[in-house]
Every structure is written in structure tokens, then in C-alpha cells.
Specification:
The chain is mostly helical and 330 residues long. The chain has 11 helices and no strands. The chain has a domain of 208 residues. Helix 1 runs parallel beside helix 11, helix 4 runs antiparallel to helix 7 and helix 7 runs parallel beside helix 10. The termini are far apart.
């Protein structure tokens, strides 16, 4: 078994488990809150956490630990702080992107499901939503869609640009919801750039967590009438005054994100060179998608590995297409 085959097999297994879990939980007779928490826990911790870890330990055994292999390296403190700012900006950008995306699908005749959503009957519901809807996805989805997928692509000789585009597209399709496709693709592209260029998943995890957490906090604040709800309303009202302010919010937000991402990548590149000069070796080490030296050699793609990635992508496309067709027929 080649390394590229192994990494692709891990990723395909995660995607397949996601589809199977969605089908099973669709027939589970539980409240919407409990069903969502249970599904997220099983999917994130089990199929995107424990399963990749166990499969990684199967032969051929790797030289590095799983955490180091998937890029769980603590970056420079400045990068962490910039990632916090980027997470807040990403949340605001995502508001505009989601609004435009929903308008697009509605124009095409798509009808969304009128779900009741989470009912925040108490603070414990908010905590569970924050854990299962923000913290778990930020950790385990990044490990799967950035760490493991990056490894499979790198082992098949895909360029950095190719990895960013493919990981972004996979991330969007993997949610298997047509209304989430465009927003998750945008988030996926930005986080993938950070993962590839900083050689660490931590900045992306921070951005991913804050984006999801702030959405949860907004919904909780609105239902409980908390001050944050009024702050959110004031900011979004300004953003949506007119098409001009909407365009400025989107362009300005993306431009600010680009600056933040560039700065984080620059700092990490400088820190890596400094560490290499001081220690005489790369700070990154070998690992899934985050190993190797700065010098890249030509790598021949493994047919079986590529085939598994294509199958995984088609599975995600099928699920996403189903939600589109279902919405158009509704």
C-alpha cells in the first residue's frame, strides 16, 4: 500500500461515513436539537477524528505522530492573534456571501426547508451548540479536509494552487447542501491557503471556530434578547443599506481577509526560516500534507489514489445535487 493510496483511502472513508451517517440519522426519531448534537458528535469525533487516527496507524507506519503529521503545530503568537481577527472578518464576509448565495438559488426556483432551527431553551443548549456546531467542526473538519486531503494531493504531485482549489471545492461539496456550497467554498479556499502556506492547521481552526461560533452566538442572542443581537442588527443594517454598501462590505471584507492571510503566511515563512537557521532543520518535519522540504520534486500520480478521490468527490456532488433537485421540486 502506497502512502498516497493510504491517505486517499482515509479521506474516502470519512466521506462515505458522512453520507451513511446522514442517511441513518434521517430515520432517527429524535428532537431536532438532540439529533443534531448526536450526529455531529458521531460524525466529527468518530468518523473525522478517531477513524482517521486509527487508519493512520495502519501499515505502512509513518515516522511521525498523527498530530504532527496532520499539521497540528502551534504557529507564532502573532499569527494566532491575526487568525482571531480573520475569524471575525470571515464571519461578516460570510453574511454577505450567504445572502447573495441564497438570493441566487431562490432566483433559480430553489425553495429552502422551513426548519424550526435550534431552540435555545437554556444556556446548556447554547453550550452544546457551541461545542458540536463550532468547536468539533473546527478541529475535525480541518484535520480531514485540510490535513488528510492535503496529504493525498501532495503525494500525487498536486501543486499548492491545485491543492487550495481542490480542498476548497471538496469542502464546499462535502457539506452536501446546495445553500451552503458557495459560502463553504469561499471559507474553504481561504483556510486552505493558510494550511498550505503556513504548514499548520491551527490558524484555519481558529477562523473556522469563530465563524461558526459567532453564528451560534447571534442565534442565541436573538432568542434571548441579548445586547450582541442589537450589535449584530446594527452592523448588518449598515451592510445591507443598499447594493453599494453590500458590494463595499463584500469587497472590503475580502480585501481585508487577503491582507490578514498574506501577513500570517509571511510571518510563518519568516519564523520557519529563522528556526531552520537556528536549529539546522525544518520546523515542519514530515507529515500528512505538511511534510517535506521546501524543494519539491516531481511526483507521479497514483491511479488508484486519484480514483478514490474522484469517487469521493462524486459522492459529495451527488448529495449536493440531490438537495438542489429536491429544493427545485418543492
Amino acid at each position: 500500500m502506497t502512502r498516497s493510496f493510504k491517505y486517499s483511502a482515509i479521506y474516502l472513508s470519512c466521506l462515505t461515513a458522512l453520507v451513511v451517517a446522514r442517511l441513518i440519522f434521517g430515520f432517527v426519531n429524535l428532537s431536532e436539537n438532540v439529533s443534531g448534537w448526536l450526529f455531529s458528535t458521531v460524525m466529527q469525533c468518530g468518523f473525522m477524528g478517531l477513524m482517521p487516527f486509527l487508519m493512520y496507524r495502519l501499515p505502512p507506519r509513518q515516522r511521525t505522530s498523527f498530530s504532527k503529521a496532520v499539521g497540528l503545530r502551534i504557529p507564532d503568537l502573532t499569527v494566532i492573534l491575526l487568525a482571531v481577527v480573520a475569524g471575525i472578518v470571515m464571519f461578516l464576509v460570510n453574511i454577505v456571501v450567504s445572502s447573495l448565495s441564497n438570493a441566487l438559488w431562490e432566483t433559480l426556483g430553489y425553495t429552502s426547508v422551513n426548519a424550526s432551527g435550534t431552540i435555545y431553551s437554556g444556556i446548556e443548549v447554547f453550550i452544546l451548540e457551541a461545542v458540536t456546531g463550532a468547536m468539533m467542526p473546527a478541529v475535525f473538519e480541518e484535520i480531514t479536509h485540510r490535513g488528510i486531503l492535503s496529504a493525498a494531493l501532495e503525494e500525487n504531485g498536486v501543486s499548492d494552487f491545485g491543492k487550495v482549489m481542490i480542498m476548497g471545492l471538496f469542502f464546499g461539496m462535502a457539506h452536501q447542501n446546495i445553500t451552503q456550497l458557495i459560502p463553504t467554498f469561499v471559507v474553504g479556499i481561504i483556510i486552505s491557503v493558510l494550511a498550505v502556506k503556513t504548514r499548520s492547521l491551527i490558524p484555519g481552526m481558529i477562523i473556522h471556530f469563530l465563524n461558526n461560533f459567532l453564528i451560534t452566538l447571534v442565534n442565541f442572542s436573538i432568542q434571548w434578547g441579548l445586547p450582541f443581537a442589537y450589535v449584530y442588527a446594527a452592523v448588518t443594517n449598515i451592510m445591507f443599506i443598499s447594493n453599494v454598501t453590500l458590494s463595499l462590505s463584500l469587497v472590503g471584507g475580502l480585501a481585508l481577509m487577503a491582507v490578514l492571510v498574506f501577513e500570517m503566511c509571511r510571518i510563518e515563512k519568516y519564523s520557519a526560516r529563522r528556526a531552520k537557521a537556528e536549529n539546522g532543520e525544518s520546523r515542519y518535519g514530515d507529515g500528512i500534507g505538511f511534510g517535506g522540504t521546501e524543494e519539491k520534486t516531481s511526483v507521479k500520480a497514483d491511479t488508484a489514489s486519484v480514483a478514490m478521490l474522484i469517487i469521493g468527490f462524486l459522492v459529495c456532488v451527488g448529495g449536493t445535487a440531490f438537495t438542489l433537485i429536491w429544493g427545485l421540486m418543492r
